[in-house]
Amino acid sequence: MRKIFEPILALAWKDWLRFSRQPFLVVVSVVMPLVFIFFYSIIVPSSSTAPVVVALESDAPAAQRFLRTLREIHSQEGVYYEIVTTDPKQAHAAFDSGHAFGLIVIPANFETDLTSGKARVELHLHNINSDYSKNLRLRLDYAVRQFNDSQSEQAMQIEETTWLPHDPVMQDYISTSLLLFACLYSAMVNTGLQVASEWNDRTVKTLLLAPVSRSALIAGKVLTGLGQSLLSIALVILALVLGFHFHPIGSLWAMAGIMLVVMLLGAGIGAMAGVASKQTLAVASMLIALSVLIFLISGNEDSLHGLAWSGPIVVMWQLARILPTTYAFLAARSLLLTGDATTLARDLVVVLLTTVIVLAGAASLLRRAYSQLPGGQ
Fold it and tell me: What is the set of domains in the chain, with CATH numbers?
């Protein structure tokens, strides 16, 4: 047993030392997942809470109750409105200067008009962005509905039925995708670079003269890629827990299992790309682009599904359903986010079979490449 694992570990140790001495490899293997985390750390909070100014022109109890409604309406991510000020002069000044995109005016006669059934509030918008304007309108509509429901007997109610018992927090939804992306990206890029570097640095001949089997060389390269990926994945998990407060609902064993399978899948894809290109720069560019594409399509399949009624998005959703990587993201959400196991068995079977096929294909290509060197090598 020792004779089997000793050369594999020796090769992995050699590549890990080279990895630690080349800052470019360290940066490439770590930077992309962290860039996405930084991007979403800006987008998610800004989409959940909208800053707004309120001109409260009445101190009447009804006006105060409506203001309290504006402050209290919220989603799982946070409150709908961040009310910057309620002073009428400051609110109008902030809106007129363009510093505030939204101004809500609660007029002086609000309570009097409420008694006669003619109360109104004003919404002023700097509608430079249709999505931002839509959010402000819908949230104010919701606040008015909540306020109306508390004033008199309800004439109509909404009976809501949901797929899940509660809405998953957007940050957890994004975190699950980012975690899988980090596993796939890191394993792809690290393994691909390590395989291609033997040809790029013209050290492959020295490698093949070593008294070890081709299988040990292949296993050593895969182990190298997986080991190097641990740094990137550890940093991503730390950033998700501290920055996004990521709390998966499944067990740590389930989390580790799906991460390991995705890393093996990524290592196989990276090894195949490394053999095909044999140039580190080309491999890095190719795998970075491919991993981002997989993340954007496979990582958002369930969101695309709900929008795929017409147009190009239908093609994107159909492509997502074809890609085996999609089922890795679906399985991860079942295990770590929703707890719904309706399609979990199917998703895991697709991912496991794809991983076995990809690893077998990578091993075959590596074995052939290690046996047929060009004359320059």
Answer: 14-43+167-371 (no CATH), 50-151 (3.40.1710.10)
